[in-house]
Amino acid sequence: MTNNFTDEQITAYLDGEREHTPYNEIDIARKTDNNLETRIKQLSFDPQMIVQSMDSLLTIAPKTPELSKPTAANDNGNSWLKGGLMSACAFAIMLFGGILGYSVSDRQTDSWREYVAAYHYLYITNTLSAVQNEARAATAELERVGGAIGKQLELASLVDFEGLDYKRSQILGYEGKPLAQMTFLSKMGTPIALCIIRTGSDSDEAIDYINMEGMAAATWSKNGYEYLIIGGNDQMLIDNAAKHFAAKI
Questions:
Q1: Domain coverage including residue 54
Q2: Are 127 and 88 in a shared domain?
Q3: 144 and 89 together in one domain
Q4: Tally of structural domains, the chain
Q5: Which of 171, 173, 109 lies closest to 145, judged by CA?
């Protein structure tokens, strides 16, 4: 059962989003599935960790020197104090950068593609290698995902590209709009994602080959939808896949 719960569903479960995840199923399964419980703990975020980490900064901060007399010694003390506090502040910045870096970068993004790129950066081969969808289940899954964005998605158009092995599809979201994500593994085991969101715009844009989060990517828009395919560093693979899916979907 654990393989049936994606990281997105578990995260939504932790956030209490009952409408977007099989909340009750996860809640029941975690009581008997140790592997699922471990994944839930790994995806949990403990705010107390930040408090404890910040408290630890007090142990390395310098003590305030005697400032009652403006002597040269005290001037040196002030310089030492400033240096120590600056070091402590720098350490705090590094700490928060490590713990909250994703959240900060998330707030700074200004398009759905950037959110997708930051999210896909977390994918590794093992994220998708265990996924095994037989044709009937995969077709039903695509019908559900396609229905969410108002677009017909054919399994044949996803499995007939030679360079990629289709794994699964799921519904994500951006600013209240459903976003379809279809994931693949390349022959080298590199996770690749094809994402589609409905915009309603009449303007079409040709394929633009770019780099996002250090990964090869391509974007285009057609018939009221925007597309992104991203993953790995094989730009030729992404280029060819973009041309294929732009023509098929």
A1: 47-108
A2: no
A3: no
A4: 3
A5: 171
Q: Are 180 and 153 in contact (CB under 8 A)?
A: yes
Residue 179 · residue 194 · CB < 8 Å: no
CA distance 184 to 206: 23
> Other C-beta atoms within 10 Å of 37: how many?
14
Q: pLDDT-derived band of residue 6, with 50, 70 and 90 as boundaries? A: confident
Strand 164-174 and strand 191-198: the pairing is unpaired
Q: Which of 1-10, 13-22, 69-78 has the lowest mean pLDDT?
A: 69-78
- 3-state secondary structure (DSSP) of residue 46: coil
At 214, the amino acid letter reads G
Widest pairwise Cα distance in the chain: 83
Average pLDDT over residues 73-96: 50
- Overall average pLDDT of the 159-177 stretch: 94
Residues 103 and 20 in one domain: no
Q: What is the pTM of this model?
A: 0.58
